[in-house]
Structures are given as C-alpha cells and as structure tokens.
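Ops channel
N.P.: pipeline sanity check, posting one input/output pair.
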C-alpha cells in the first residue's frame, strides 16, 4: 500500500476500491499533499486490473470543505508562475478523476464546499446523505470557481452552474438531486447500504464495456447528431461487439447464466 498521509484505501475482494480522504480535523480540506495523493491514487487504481470501481469517500462529519485556507494563503503570497503551476496540479487531479477508466462514485456526507463540489462533479456519479449540503463558495472569499468550473457545468449545466457560482448559496441534498449534482439520496444511517447497492449494479456490467462507455461519452456533447457523431458511435459499437467480453455477455444472456465478470453469490 502506498505511503499516503491523507488517504486511506480499502481494497475489497469484489474489486471495489474505497478511497477515503482522511483529514477530518480540517473537514478534508485539500492542500498540496492531498491533491498530489488523490492524483497518484486515481492513476494507480485506474490502471489496476483488479479494481472494478472506485468509491471516493471522506472521514469524519463532512465530505470536504474545499481548499485548505492555509494552502490558499500560501498561494496568495506566491509568484504568478508558482500560482499557475499550483492551479495546474489541481486541474490535472480533477481531470485524472474525470478520465479514470474505472467507474467512480462519490460518497457524500455533511458539507461539500468549493473544490469539494468539484470532486463530486469529477466523479461519474454521487450518492449523498439526505443531510448533506453543497456550496460553490469561492465568491464569498473574493475568488472564483475556475478550475472546478468545467466539471460543474458538465454535471449540472451552464445556467445552474452559473447560479451556484454567482450566489455561493448553500443548497440541500434534495436540490442537489434535482439538478443532477448527485444521483441518489439515502438516510444518514443508510448511506453505506445505498453506495453498496450502486456498486452492485456497476459490478454486474462488463468492465471493458464500462471503460468504452467512459471513453466514448467523453467525446459526446449535447447538440446535433451529425455525420461525425453517427460515424463515431457506429465504429465504436462495431468494434466492441466483436470483443471477447461482448461474446461472453451474449453467451451468458442466451445461456441464462451470469457472465464471468460477476462474482458468485
């Protein structure tokens, strides 16, 4: 196991990797170390054939308070070049999560603020406690949610993203569900069970197919389904349905059995 100081990793026999941010004393606010370790962890787990999906969780009362204020103060005193390099590392970490070839699931309790919302948006999906709350809070401190902005827009759309950024208002779990920031809510004492249920659905699907879905959908955007888009999707399905995983999936369906990628009950 890597010598991480801000993360804990629970690798389960079914292929689920639970990666837990472990800075509860500062509500899992991120600094240079947490950013670097999240980037390294998603790189490692994304390339590990034994990992089927990654759950991003957090220790303590809150998911993430966003940027560590001491880190932000250090950045404010740094040179322009150092500030750009620092922001690029944060952007690269979020991109690493968003581009991870494995399904990614955020488990959200308590508050997710600022960059913590960015972490939620960078994951493929999120399950939150009914008591969770969210705020894109940067404007309250005289800055803006720049690096998380593209991920926020992808998650909730431009108009909602702009409202959240301009007002920095705190929203509850129900509103977050309505706008698509999270995909499912659970009672606080049922959050783990809800995450496990989503994980079971993910584990029932072909891992290579899921990687193909993530790669293809990253190239799609709302808009006209033009010739280029039609050709991309036609070429992709033609290639994938000739793969060993697809043949196994068809055979399992016709044979009324579970495919080989599912674990025995």
């Amino acid at each position: 196991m890597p010598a991480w100081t801000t993360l804990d990793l629970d690798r389960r026999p079914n292929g689920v990797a639970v990666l837990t941010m472990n800075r509860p004393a500062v509500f899992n606010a991120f600094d240079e170390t947490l950013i670097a370790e999240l980037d390294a962890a998603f790189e490692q787990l994304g390339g590990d054939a034994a990992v089927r999906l990654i759950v991003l969780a957090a220790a303590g009362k809150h998911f993430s308070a966003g940027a560590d204020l001491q880190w932000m103060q250090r950045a404010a005193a740094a040179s322009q070049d150092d500030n750009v390099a620092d922001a690029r590392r944060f952007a690269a970490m979020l991109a690493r999560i968003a581009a991870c070839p494995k399904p990614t699931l955020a488990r959200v309790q308590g508050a997710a603020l600022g960059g913590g919302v960015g972490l939620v948006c960078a994951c493929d999906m999120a399950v939150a406690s009914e008591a969770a709350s969210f705020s894109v809070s940067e404007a309250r401190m005289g800055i803006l949610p720049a690096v998380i902005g593209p991920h926020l827009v992808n998650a909730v759309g431009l108009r909602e993203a702009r409202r959240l950024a301009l007002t920095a208002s705190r929203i509850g779990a129900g509103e977050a569900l309505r706008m698509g920031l999270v995909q499912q809510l659970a009672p606080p004492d049922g959050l783990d069970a809800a995450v496990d249920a989503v994980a079971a659905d993910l584990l029932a699907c072909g891992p290579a197919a899921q990687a193909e879905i993530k790669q293809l959908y990253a190239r799609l955007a709302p808009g006209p389904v033009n010739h280029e888009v039609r050709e991309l999707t036609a070429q992709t399905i033609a290639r994938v349905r000739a793969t060993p995983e697809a043949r196994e999936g068809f055979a399992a369906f016709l044979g009324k059995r579970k495919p080989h990628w599912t674990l025995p009950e």
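N.P.: looks fine end to end. The two ends are 28 Å apart (CA to CA).
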